[in-house]
Amino acid sequence: MNQKNISQNQLAILLDDPPLVSRILRGKAEISKKAAILLNKYLDIEFEVLFQKEIEEVAKREFSGREKSKDFLGKGRKKKELITH
């Protein structure tokens, strides 16, 4: 905020929610898409930074899902063995 010469009050007016700004600055608030777009536009904060926690959670779920699917591959069906005479 200091780099862009914007105060907390100006940001509160921009986001139209002073308590939200306070919680965001303390890192204790969920950021809406509207707030993320405004923060990106006026403060040049990348979306990856704004939604880092959510991105990490999705990545963990996808990774654990892949690990679980690997565990179940081949279980339940047995390959037919070739019988030679």
TrEMBL record:
Gene3D superfamilies per the UniProt record, alphabetical: lambda repressor-like DNA-binding domains
Ranges of Basic and acidic residues composition bias in the record: 64-74
Region (Disordered): 64-85
Domain HTH cro/C1-type stretches: 2-50
Composition skew (Basic residues), residue ranges: 75-85
InterPro entries assigned to the protein according to its UniProt record, in alphabetical order: Cro/C1-type_HTH, Lambda_DNA-bd_dom_sf
Pfam families: HTH_3
GO molecular function term, any single one: DNA binding
Protein name: XRE family transcriptional regulator
